[in-house]
């Protein structure tokens, strides 16, 4: 196992939503770099599989919509591994489709998991880190939190909010010794994008790329990181493009339909069933 860098050493890291996808790959990458990692997820069965595959002994069933559940996770981590150095609020879901057809239940679920889960996780981490005046909180946002995407209105809303929340909290605690960062992936090849083709000419990221970016954030903290470089550069540039031209470019890239009319609903069936019940 590769040890951590000399500048950071081995850190105690807690990751939410880590039974699969970006969270799982992040745990794997951090273990490879010598960090002590704990994982939590609402899917207990898959969590056990992930913990076994990764060789992790500190794993906990976790519902990020419930502050008491997050506190219990953090208690377990600190009892088993030591004081929390890094918390990665990663849990999130991404239903797709027309806004007027989205059920109130799935709207509420996105807000509770994608946004409130991040806010609760951040607040509870701060309570533990502030007395020691050290720690790093990393919140998983999205490039969909910078650029609007048809078919993902609620998801975009939650990720825009995660970015705003993290930036405001980062400035609030800038003299506290606590680092706050957001990671902003492009669409990534996990279950979240099952049944979708992606934008034309812009490849999806692989979860391993996001994991590497998060690991580098821990080793060299900064306010945020966009992944991939090409997609991140486009997101940044689009802020300076006139609205009408931006809409035309989005249509050319297929962004108007990729999460609406071009979806393979059968390929998304299992994912949608899972996020509706967990």
Topology:
Layout: E1 12-16, H1 21-32, E2 36-41, H2 44-54, E3 59-61, H3 67-80, E4 86-89, H4 104-129, E5 135-140, H5 153-172, E6 178-185, H6 207-219, E7 224-227, H7 229-238, H8 243-252, H9 265-277
Parallel strand pairs: 1-2, 1-4, 2-3, 4-5, 5-6, 6-7
Q: Can you walk me through this structure?
A:
The protein is α/β, with parallel strands linked by helices and 278 residues long. It has a single domain (12-228, 244-277), classed as NAD(P)-binding Rossmann-like Domain (Rossmann fold). Helix content is 46%, strand content 13%. It contains nine helices and seven strands; from the N terminus they run E-H-E-H-E-H-E-H-E-H-E-H-E-H-H-H. It has helices spanning 21-32, 44-54, 67-80, 104-129, 153-172, 207-219, 229-238, 243-252, 265-277, and strands spanning 12-16, 36-41, 59-61, 86-89, 135-140, 178-185, 224-227. It has a seven-stranded parallel β-sheet, sandwiched between helices. Strand 5, helix 5 and strand 6 (178-185) form a beta-alpha-beta unit. 42% of the residues are buried. The model is unreliable at 1-8 (pLDDT under 50).
CATH fold group: Rossmann fold
On the 0 to 100 scale, the average pLDDT is: 91
Give Rg in angstroms.
18 Å
Total DSSP E strands: 7
Report low-confidence residues grouped into runs of 5 or more.
1-8
Number of domains: 1
- Given helix and strand content, the structural type is alpha/beta
Summarize the structure.
Helices cover 46% and strands 13% of the residues. The protein has 278 residues and is α/β, with parallel strands linked by helices.
